[in-house]
Amino acid sequence: MLETHECGARCCAAPAESPTGIQRTAYADFRRPRSVKAGLMSALIAIAPLVVVFLLLVLWRWPAARTMPVGFGLTVLLAAVYWQVPCLRMVAAGLRGLVIAGELLYIVWGALSLLFVLKHSGAVAAIRNGFRRISPDRRIQAIIVAWAFGAFMEGAAGFGTPAAVAGPLLVILGFPPMAAVVSALVIQSTPVSFGAVGTPILIGVRRGLEDQSIVDSFVAAPGGPQSFTELLLLIGARVAVVHAVIGTLIPLAMVCLLTRFFGAKRSWREGLAVWPFALFAGLAFTVPYVLLGVLLGPAFPSLVGGLIALAVTVTVTRSGWLQPRQVWDFPPSPDWPGEWRSDFPPSQNDPPGRPMSLAMAWLPYLLVAGLLVATRVPPAMAGFFQRTTIRWLDVFGTGVDIATTPLKLPGTVFLMVVLVCPILHRMHWAGFLAAQVEALAAVRRAAVAIVFAVPMVQVFIYSDHNTACLPGMPQALALAVADLVGRAWPAFSAVIGAVGAFVAGSNTISNMTFSLFQFQVARQIGLEPMFVVALQAVGGAAGNMICIHNVVAAAATVGLFGREGLVIRKTLIPTVYYLAAAGAIGSVVLLVF
Question: Quick one: which of 156, 228, 405, 556 could link to 446 by a disulfide (CB 3.0–4.6 Å)?
C-alpha cells in the first residue's frame, strides 16, 4: 500500500476501486498545481515521451521496433524522477502491459495464420476473382471491405480486429500493403465508440462515471436523467449523432487518401469522382447507426449498422447504381515503390492451391464473424467465455490489477476457424504447417515494438498514484488544457479523448480515464456534461487511427514492418479532420444553443 505523504493529498494513497474492482480516479482528489505555470510545466514533461515517439516515428522515420524502447525508457525515467512513482507500481504496470501486448500479438498471430492458410488453400484467388466480378474499381472495393465489413467487425469484436481482417482482405484483392493498412485504419473511427457490442460506452464511460457524487447529484436533479442507466443511454445517443455527422464523409476521405497517395496521378480529384457512391455508403451505415444508438442504446449501432451497410452497398454495386464512369486502379505492381510493399517473401503471395467456389472461399471469414458475435451477444455464450477470465488482483500490493480472458479474445476465434480450414478446403497438411511457420515468423517481427509500446502506455497511465502528489501524466495534460482554454473547452474535449486513445490504444480506456474529468469541467463552466462526455468518446474513437500499437499490429498483418511512421503520416489527416469537426460541433451546440 502506498504511503500518504506529508502534503496530505489523497493522490499519494492507494487507488480507490469501484464495486466492479476497476480502478478509477476522482480528479477532485488530486492536488492541483499551485499555478497555471506549474501545471503547464507538468503537462510539458508528461507529453515529452509522446512527442519524442512522434518525432522519431513520423519525422525521422525510425521503425517502431527502435522507437518504442526509447519511448518506454523515457516514460519510466520521468515517472521515477519527476512523478516519483514507486518502483513496484511501475513494475506492476509494466507486467500489465506485457499481458495486453501478449493479447495483441495473439490476435495478430490468429489473423496472419488465417490469411496464410487461405493463401495455401486457394481461397485467396477465389476471393480476389469474386470481388473483381462485383466491381473492379479499387475505390468501391475499399469502401465495401474496409468501411462496411470493417464497421461490422468493429461492432462485433473491437480489439483492432477490423484492421487485422480488412487489411489482409484488401491485400488479397491486390491492394498495395501500405494502402490496405491505411484504409483499414481510417475506418477505425466512426464505429469504434460502439465497438465490441458497445464496450467503450457500457464499460468505459460507465466505470469512469459510476459512484461519483458529482454525477449522482446531476442524475438526481430535477429535469435530469432519471437514473444512471438513462444517463449512459443519453450520452450514447449524443455520441451516435456526432459520429454520424462527421463519419458520413469518412468513406470519401478514405478513397481520396488512396487516390492521392497511391494512385498513378497522385490526384485528390480521382477520389472525389466517386463521391455519389461514397456518400451513399456513408449514409447506409450512419443512418441506421443513429437510429439504433438513439432507440436501442450503445450495443448495436456498429454491429447492426455495419451489417446493413454491407448488404446495401454490395446490392447497389451489383446493380451498377452510383458507379463511377471510369474504373480506377493502382499502378501495376512492378511500379510500386518499395515502401508500399510487403516484407513477406514473394513466394508467399500466391502459393498453389485448388480451385474452389466463392462461397467456400468466404466461409472462414463468415465463421469468424459469426463466432465473434456468438461470444459476445447471447448471454449464455458470452457468460461462458467471460468465466474463463484469469486475474491477478492488486499486483505486489500496488492496486494494479491484471486480467485476461483468452477464450474471448478474437485471436481464439481466428485460430478456431484456422483449425477447421484444412477440412473445409481439403488442404494438404504440409501447406497448413507452412502457413503456421510463416505466421509465427511475421509475429516475431512485430513483437519488439508491441512489447515496449504497451508497457510504456501502462506506466504512463498508472503514474496517477505517486509520492510527488501530482496528477498522473494523462491527467496533467488534461488539467493544463482545461486551465488554458476555459469556456472554449468544447473545442478541445475531443482532443483529450484522442490523446487518451493514442496513448492507451483503446477508446474504452480513454473513456475510463477521462470521462469524469470531462464531466467535472463541463459542470464547472456551466455546460451540459452529457454532451461533453460524448465528445470525449468521439475523440477517443478518432485517436484509434493513429494509435501506435494499433498501427504496429495492423501493419504486421500485411508484412509492413518498420514503416509505421509513414502510415501515421497518412492517417493523421483524417484524424485532424475528425477532431476539428467534433470541436466545431461541440462549440456550436454547447456555446450557442
Answer: 556
DSSP letter at 5 equals P
Q: What is the dihedral of CA 34, 461, 181, 323, to 10 degrees?
A: -70
HSE (side-chain half, CA atoms, 13 Å) at 355: 2
pLDDT < 50 stretches in the chain: 1-31, 347-350
Residue labelled with grid coordinates 489482409: 168
Instruction: Give the residue carrying C-alpha cell 518504442.
Output: 68
Name 286's Cβ contacts closer than 8 Å, sequence gap at least 6.
190, 243, 244, 247, 248, 305
Rounded CA-CA distance 145/181 in Å is 12
Q: What is the pLDDT of residue 38?
A: 78
Q: Evaluate whether 410 touches 159 at the Cβ level (below 8 Å).
A: yes
Instruction: Supply the DSSP string of 459-489, one letter for each residue.
Output: HHHGGGS-TT----HHHHHHHHHHHHHGGGG
Distances (CA, A) of 494 to 197, 228, 314, 317: 22, 23, 33, 35
Nearest residue to 82 (alpha-carbon basis) of 504, 586, 470, 540 = 470
* CB 471, CB 479: distance < 8 Å: yes
Residue 410, H or E segment: helix 410-424
Kind plus residue range of the DSSP H or E element containing 170: helix 161-172
Which residue carries 474504373 as its cell?
Answer: 327
pLDDT, residue 382, reads 55
> Strand, coil or helix: what is 517?
helix
Q: How many CB atoms lie within 10 A of CB 265?
A: 11
Give the single-character DSSP code of 224. Answer: S
Q: What is the Cα–Cα distance from 56 to 510, expressed in whole angstroms? A: 24
Instruction: Write down how long the chain is.
Output: 593
Q: b or e along 441-464 (b: 16 or more beta carbons within 10 Å of the residue's beta carbon)?
A: ebbebbbbbbbbbbbbbbbbbbbb
Q: What local confidence, expressed as pLDDT, does residue 25 receive?
A: 44
CB 369 within 8 Å of CB 153? yes
Look at residue 381 in the predicted model and tell me its pLDDT.
59
Return the pLDDT at 438: 85
